[in-house]
Design a protein that fits this description.
By secondary structure, the chain is an alpha/beta fold. The chain folds into two domains: about 140 residues, Rossmann fold; about 60 residues, DNA polymerase, domain 1 (Orthogonal Bundle). The protein is built from ten helices and six strands, in the order βαααααβαβαβαβαβα.
Length: about 220
Amino acid sequence: MQDLNYDMIIWDWDGTLMNSTPTIVDCMQKSCMDLGMPIPSNEIASHVIGLGLHDAVKIAIPSISESEYELVSQRFRHYYLKQEHDLVLFLGVRELLEELKKRGHILAVATGKPRLGLNRSLEKHQLGHLFNLSRTADETKSKPHPQMLLELLDQTGIPAHRSLMIGDTTHDLLMAKQAGVPGLAVAYGAHPESQLLSYEPVACFREVKELSKFLLSS
């Protein structure tokens, strides 16, 4: 039985399912420090979370040249891989996903992570069996371009209005809007609630507990 009018629920990963925002900010700042580049503030480093890595570097450190993007990306990966094993899911996420799957919803992921990174996370947290399909930033255009969502819709044949995109950034909500997919915001991740609300999501929640109540309500 499905309680919502959404056949497919599409999830962002970092900051939505996984509590990784502080780690990503720390890795970005350490990378810039190592390379003697301008160090982005916590606000700026948080703002670019969800984008593909090169796009994130471009926005977070606008003064460097395009030829230096890969240097920052390599250093970021160095730090991130050292801390990745310590990352955890937000409390209640696993139970929510399991219940949604049990109720017959198709679950998908649309993330700024690369494919290898998403696969590592799915395996480590034993979530792979819950998701029917996924798209990553190195397979399609980076958020907020709608390609990720358009490909998921095309692959499943599910209409946009019967799908729901859930994310913690304005990049997620803009991507959803451009794909014609309803967007739902969570305000416990990378972007502040005020910015998320400016994109008029169907709802915005500050805790996984509130999100679960909404998604599982009869």
